[in-house]
Amino acid sequence: MIAVFLAALPGLLPAAHAQEKEAEKDWRAVLAVSQAAMGREIGDFRFTDSKGREVAFADFRGRPLLVSFVYTGCFQACPVATKFLMEAVETARKALGDDRFSVVSIGFNQPFDNPVAMASFARQNGIDDPRWFFLTPRAGEVEALTQRFGFVYEATPKGFDHVTQVSVVDPKGVIYRQVYGENFDLPMLVQPLKELLSGQASESFTVENVWEKVKLYCTVYDPNSGGYRVNYGIFFEIFAGLTTLGAIAWVVIRELRRRPRGA
């Protein structure tokens, strides 16, 4: 048996290598489609949420939005990815604020991912977040919706093969970033949210917005704890820097005023 296996290896190895190359080629094609969606407006698709209410993307304008696609018949990848996303969302809320962004999970396997199935999927995965919505799209709009987000999926005998991604949408409804994988480093999700919220704080100059921007800047990832914290040291460094620049400016202005006119 061992001799037969070894004799077969020269034929098996090239075949396995070819399959790996083909899989890499397919992933690059999927990634290109997904990446091309960045900068694209998400439109105003309409949905039914898990409580039977009509919801539209327009309802989420004004703050960042996280969008994931799932199908409720999935017993492995979708639950794993959703539970990890729940942990990432909880970390982001602690770092940035509970009401700073919303989350939606969209069931793309229609008509099976109906509101009842989506509600059951949320319960099974322990999601109890008032700002996380499980949505059922109109059956005739699934293709246009998934294409808008660059979400690639393919039906198989066991269900679907699909890219696992979370789309980060800006407050104006434009896809800002794509995050991939059943799990990922937390800064990959939290950093773009920080950037979007910081940009919002810069749009109008108020004391509250300036403080919010400084606080966001000082919120840093701590790899030891696996979470985020406000590093007040950065704040004091900024304050010291501004104080030093102010002192230098004051000295320069004072010296200029002391000089005789015409000197």
Automatic annotation (TrEMBL):
Segments passing through the bilayer: 232-253
Source species, domain of life: Bacteria
Cross-referenced PROSITE patterns: THIOREDOXIN_2 (PS51352)
Protein's organism: Quisquiliibacterium transsilvanicum
Disulfide feature: 74-78
Residue positions binding Cu cation: 74, 78, 162
Protein name: Protein SCO1/2
Signal peptide range: 1-18
Similarity section: Belongs to the SCO1/2 family.
Pfam families: SCO1-SenC
Domain Thioredoxin: 36-198
Swiss-Prot/TrEMBL keywords: Copper, Disulfide bond, Membrane, Metal-binding, Signal, Transmembrane, Transmembrane helix
Record GO terms (molecular function): metal ion binding
InterPro entries per record: SCO1/SenC, Thioredoxin-like_sf, Thioredoxin_domain
Transmembrane helix listed as a keyword: yes
